[in-house]
Design brief:
Elements (H helix, E strand, L loop, with lengths): L1 H24 L5 H26 L9 H22 L4 H14 L6 H19 L1
Helix pairs in contact: 1-2, 1-3, 2-3, 2-4
Length: about 130
């Protein structure tokens, strides 16, 4: 039984890694491409959220789908995530789209100042978590 869980986790992680590589390799040249990429990222994020939510609920031995449910659960979560992303309820894709179009206006380059600000914000968050 644990082999099936391990197999389903590997396949989901492999699929997500392939999606991230696809997103990272593309350079958006127009607004339509940016919109598509932001929706895809939101879909990946929602899939991770759905999987985490599903893993937090204990399964009953009485009404459990068995091996068939475990095998196809990740595919169902992927479809749910795509539908949630297309409904534009979270606003995540809109935020990502705004950020990417802002970067496109600057030629898509992150300046050293922006990198330094990002590092400073990260360090500040890290310091507050350690306290």
């Amino acid at each position: 039984m644990s082999e099936i869980n391990a197999l389903s986790n590997v396949s989901v992680n492999d699929m997500n890694a392939q999606r991230f590589e696809k997103v990272n390799q593309k350079t958006p040249e127009n607004l339509e491409e940016v919109k598509k990429l932001s929706k895809e990222f939101e879909s990946i994020f929602m899939e991770i959220v759905l999987k985490s939510m599903r893993d937090s609920v204990d399964k009953s031995k009485f009404i459990d789908g068995g091996n068939g449910e475990q095998i196809f659960q990740s595919m169902l979560d992927t479809e749910y995530a795509k539908n949630l992303a297309n409904q534009n309820m979270t606003g995540l894709s809109t935020s990502i789209e705004d950020h990417l179009t802002k970067l496109m206006g600057d030629g898509g380059k992150i300046t050293e100042v922006q990198k330094a600000v990002g590092r400073a914000q990260y360090q500040k968050i890290k310091d507050t978590e350690e306290r």
